[in-house]
Amino acid sequence: MPGALPLGDPAPSDGLLPATCADGAVDRTFSVYVHIPFCAVRCGYCDFNTYTAHELGSGSSQDTYAEAVSSEIAFGAKVLEESGVPRRSVSTVFFGGGTPTLLPAEDLVRVLREIRTQWDLAPDAEITTEANPDSVTPESLQLLADGGFTRVSIGMQSAVPHVLKTLDRTHNPERVGLAVQWAKAAGLQVSVDLIYGTPGESIEDWRTSVNTALSYDPDHISAYALIIEDGTRLAGQIRRGEVANIDDDDHADKYLIADELFAAAGYNWYEVSNWSKDADSRCLHNLAYWQGGDWWGAGPGAHSHVGGLRWWNVKHPAAYQQRIDAGTSPAAGRETPDEDARYLERAMLLTRIVDGMDTAELKPEGRKAIAGLIADGLVVPEAAFAKKVVLTLQGRLLADAVLRRLLDF
């Protein structure tokens, strides 16, 4: 089941933000995240805030969801205006889930239209939706492209049937290639998402998945190490000894294989788990998160960030719908991290991307650690001499250890 929301202060029913949220806003990008909490089947490894049809219960419906989330977007525009946050065009929009493409393409376009109406879209805005291979058709992808979407991120995960079965993925591996083909024909940029380290996945299984993904010639590839989350079905299977546990050395070996094969095919890493053909193919929405932009998160359980303030919506779609119907904020809580928490988060995010972190942003103990990190082959010497902390390949494998040394804990 989905994990718990963070603790925080109560959020006001009118949603208004402190005046400090407006400070420097014109210098920050503004994005929108739309959470679609519906899935046809719950995958055994997933603890995202998602619900199958039989888990929804009464009080919410996929049929009326586009209307509800559009209402929150209109509410959000009003909140930002009344809070004194200057109006900014939206740089990126990301529909995530769940499986956004379980909703009709017309519904997703309707929500995008509301974003355009309330906030405007930048002329070169990146508009992405996640999609399962078996939840799209040539017609639905064309409708999305015609409605303003520019990018689709396809949940491939693996090309090997027994690995997909362990992950509870229901699509046929061959369907991924069709979905990529249809998306390209519609004029959409394409990303494929892979997961490595699934119990029972061999090195050759992983090579097969990587090479198959590359054969589709996507613009962008993400490869994430499988994490076992408490409370998931897969965690229970591992605890009962029904499947093997994950292995850190196996993860490292598979990461190195992926990076080697991606690089040989012309893909460059720009974040620890993400590779693209060129700068224009990077996921700008995720970069906005990593670089500290502002975003409004719409939908149940969605998180938002404006000017250092963070808040999160109630989790269950029925509770969310109730607040939307009442015209009150769907936020369940909010917080403003203190200086130490902001420093830690900024260092954690910036050191994960190829553009790196300015050494001037580090505290003195962090700057002193750089020489040792160079000697250990964990940061790029040339970048460090140019006052940037950029991870080497070995540094990417040990990103958490690098962060601990930079932060001296």
UniProtKB/TrEMBL annotation:
Q: Which NCBIfam families does the UniProt entry name for this protein?
A: hemN_rel
Principal place where this protein is found?
cytoplasm
In terms of InterPro entries, this protein maps to: Aldolase_TIM (IPR013785), Coproporphyrinogen-III_oxidase (IPR034505), Elp3/MiaA/NifB-like_rSAM (IPR006638), HemW-like (IPR004559), rSAM (IPR007197), rSAM_sf (IPR058240)
Q: Which PANTHER family match?
A: COPROPORPHYRINIGEN III OXIDASE (PTHR13932), RADICAL S-ADENOSYL METHIONINE DOMAIN-CONTAINING PROTEIN 1, MITOCHONDRIAL (PTHR13932:SF5)
Query: What is the official name of this protein in its record?
Result: Heme chaperone HemW
Domain Radical SAM core span(s) in chain numbering? 24-268
Where does the record place it? Cytoplasm
Role, per record: Probably acts as a heme chaperone, transferring heme to an unknown acceptor. Binds one molecule of heme per monomer, possibly covalently. Binds 1 [4Fe-4S] cluster. The cluster is coordinated with 3 cysteines and an exchangeable S-adenosyl-L-methionine.
The similarity annotation says: Belongs to the anaerobic coproporphyrinogen-III oxidase family. HemW subfamily.
Give the keywords, sorted: 4Fe-4S, Chaperone, Cytoplasm, Heme, Iron, Iron-sulfur, Metal-binding, Oxidoreductase, S-adenosyl-L-methionine
Tell me the PROSITE patterns matching this sequence: RADICAL_SAM (PS51918)
